Amino acid sequence: MISRTEEFSINLAAQQTARLCLIKGSHRFLSSSDNINILPSDWVLVNTGHPKIVNEDWTFDEHLFQIEILDSTAKHLAMMKSRKLGISEIMMRLALYWLINIPRTTALYTLPTGDDVSRFHDTRIRPTLNSSPFLNSYVGDLDNKGSKKIGESFLTMRGTFNDRQAQAIESDFLFVDELDYMPRPDLITDFRQSMAHSAYGFERDISTPRFPDTGIHAIYQSGSKSKWMVRCRRCDRWQYLTLEHIHEHDKYGYEYRCEKCKEFSIDRIHGKWEAEDNKAEVKSYHANQLVAPWISAKTIRTSKETEPFNRLEEKYYNQVLGLPHKGHSEAFIPSIVDMDGCRNKGLKWVGSYNSQGLATMGVDWGKTSWCEVSMPDGDGGRVVLWVDWTDKGSKRNHAEYMADIAKRFNVGLCIADEGD
User: Fold this and answer.
1) What is the rounded CA–CA span in Å between residue 191 and residue 354?
2) Which tens digits make up the pLDDT trace of 252-307?
3) Is residue 22 exposed (0-12), middle (13-18) or buried (19+ Cβ within 10 Å)?
4) Backbone angles phi and psi of 125, in degrees to 5
5) HSE of 314 in the Cβ direction (CA atoms, 13 Å)?
6) I want to staple 201 with a disulfide (CB 3.0 to 4.6 A). Which of 165, 195, 265, 377 is the partner?
7) How far is the CA of 327 from the CAs of 211, 250, 339, in angstroms?
8) CA–CA separation, 417 and 397 (whole Å)
């Protein structure tokens, strides 16, 4: 049972919005012609519907951690996240909020590829607009998957595959969705330059992490490093949930246990963000599936033993825990390599390298499959970038493992034998 203070704080925004909308009419109240500031989370509640259930209103029930992310006034916000938290969903709604309430502006929304842009439009943007007569009334005569006129503003969507995607774009708001999976992360610098002359210049970076100290993890580390804290109902201890909080439970199989009183009494719905560095210029956040009340402790614990997480530990860390992982512990980047099985244990590991498509990859299939990635050194020779192997799972699993490496180094040509 929650306290009166908690209940009041949770419902206050919704009550105020409902009351004002009743007096003024939600469409007029929330339009840009009214000189009233409304928080993005309130605006989303009133003007957007449930992403999966037709004719259902949007709700933050079990998603209270999303509210501060939406309402933050930080110029640069970054979120290192796991999958299945609905963060892309609220970022798309935030873009619409800014475009409608700040006329004559442009939001640039970037995704890894053109296919991702098309899929995001068809499954997220178009259904959201269609479900709301209010929002749909703002859609102008420019209405395609890459560009939309929203009222007096514009929404532009781009992949990050080549230089052409970043040309001739000026924007006021930049959304970088899945930074760590972009084939050309260097283009983000060009996209940021698109806001050079903007009076606004807001940037929102969100991504499932991949490797340590790169991409979204590097941005998170340089920022405020906020984590979602939850409270024990019994002893009032505030704590950040980790796998160490999950213990066997007589009734539920697995459940969250308080680190202090050892009782199974964690309130996963109500919480608060706690920053490590409040003075940091970048407001950075980390959230994973442990903060999602709709995902049980049993699911999180047992999924580690299921496909594909049982053979690819890094995917479990990235997609479930929202944490970076160095990848295959036996992989390395050499300066000099002998391909006879000898390895230099002193060589330094790196996560990825954007070869601009110049890298080639050779693969030798077998019970243990090997690969080598190399590229021209500029003097007529080649420099080896990566040597790796896998002996886990089926032939298909081996192929998926090698394909991931090819994407990581932006390989332009891959040569593989026929295998066994």
Assistant:
1) 18
2) 889 999 999 999 999 999 999 999 999 999 999 999 999 999 999 999 999 998 88
3) exposed
4) -70, -55
5) 14
6) 195
7) 7, 35, 21
8) 16
On whether the CB atoms of residues 259 and 240 are closer than 8 A, the answer is no
Tell me what pLDDT residue 160 has: 78
Question: Hey, which residues does 376 pair with through a beta bridge?
Answer: 382
Distance CA 71, CA 286 (A): 16
From the CB of residue 272, how many other CB atoms can be counted at a distance below 10 Å?
15
Angle, alpha carbons 326-332-336 (nearest 5°): 160
Query: Could you give the angle at which helices 4-24 and 40-47 cross, rounded to 10 degrees?
Result: 60
Cα angle 361, 364, 368 (rounded to 5 degrees) comes to 125
State how far the Cα of 419 lies from the Cα of 380, in Å rounded to an integer: 30
Cα separation, 363 vs 382, whole angstroms: 17
d(CA 166, CA 10): 41
| pLDDT for residue 251 is more than 80 | yes
Question: Which of helix, strand or coil describes residue 289?
Answer: helix
For residue 45, what is the enclosing H or E element? helix 40-47
Alpha-carbon distances, residue 225 vs 80, 83, 217, 308 (angstroms): 10, 19, 10, 29
Question: In the 3-class helix/strand/coil scheme, how is 18-37 assigned residue by residue?
Answer: HHHHHHHCHHHHCCCCCCCC
Tens of pLDDT, residue by residue over 301-338, are 999 988 888 777 888 999 999 999 876 544 444 433 33
Note every long-range contact of 28-31, with CB atoms under 8 Å and residues 24 or more positions apart, other chains counting.
Answer: 30/100, 30/101, 30/134, 31/100
Scored b (16 or more CB within 10 A) or e, 204-235 reads: bbbbbbbbbebbbbbbbeebbbbbbebbbbee
Instruction: Please name every residue paired with 409 in a beta bridge, in sequence order, or none if there are none.
Output: none
Question: In angstroms, rounded to a whole number, what is the distance separating the alpha carbons of residues 206 and 110?
Answer: 11
- CA dist 190 and 219 (Å) reads 17
pTM, full prediction:
0.75
Which run of H or E residues covers position 69?
helix 65-71
Which amino acid, one-letter code, is at 58?
W
Q: How many Å from the N-terminal Cα to the C-terminal Cα in the chain?
A: 61
Comparing CA positions, the residue from 144, 40, 35, 152 lying closest to residue 105 is 152
Instruction: Report the C-alpha gap between 249 and 39 in whole angstroms.
Output: 41
